[in-house]
């Protein structure tokens, strides 16, 4: 098991390796960040945002919380979103969930974990809203995976309905919001078929993506 000192040593080796390959890298990074992407993902330690999409520091602006939830009362998430859209001028917002998410599984099973139960009720609400997407033949694991997919689509809708994103579209700022999910077992990202690029598109595209998911038509 690594100790904090091991992590510091790892950091020095990492920084030295980057500097050998690109002596100006950290100087450029310190002057300015210009990411094209905002990643809204789960806090799970097995889903390292930059690594799984092959991007370097400075190329991905990241917000993470348990079960990658976006709610309109979460000022932390909204502050990240506003900074990313209005200051950094990101072009893409990616909401990314993952299969095997402990928070989603707890929400599906109704597990009692303490304070976090209040947060996970947002995921439970998604399950109740889309009860028809679950069949009696599905196992708990399959149902939790389906709930994880549905929750990503719901969070994409929530992002699109924020004042930050809707106002960006009204002023003509190029901005797309995407829903993806990650499989821990193979390290592959899956596009859930919902990408919104303009105000008003959500109304038709969100139900279509949910229907495609129910049919198993998402690649």
What are the defining features of this structure?
219 residues; 5 strands; five-stranded mixed sheet; Beta-carbonic Anhydrase, Chain A; alpha/beta; 2 domains
Could you explain the architecture of this structure?
This protein is of the alpha/beta class and 219 residues long. The chain folds into 2 domains: 1-32, no CATH class; 34-215, Carbonic anhydrase (Beta-carbonic Anhydrase, Chain A, 3-Layer(aba) Sandwich). It has 9 helices and 5 strands; from the N terminus they run ααβαβαβααααββα. The protein has helices at 4-21, 25-31, 49-52, 75-87, 102-109, 116-129, 140-160, 163-170, 202-215; strands spanning 37-42, 60-65, 92-98, 176-183, 188-196. Helix 3 (49-52) links the parallel strand 1 (37-42) and strand 2. It starts with a helix and ends with a helix.
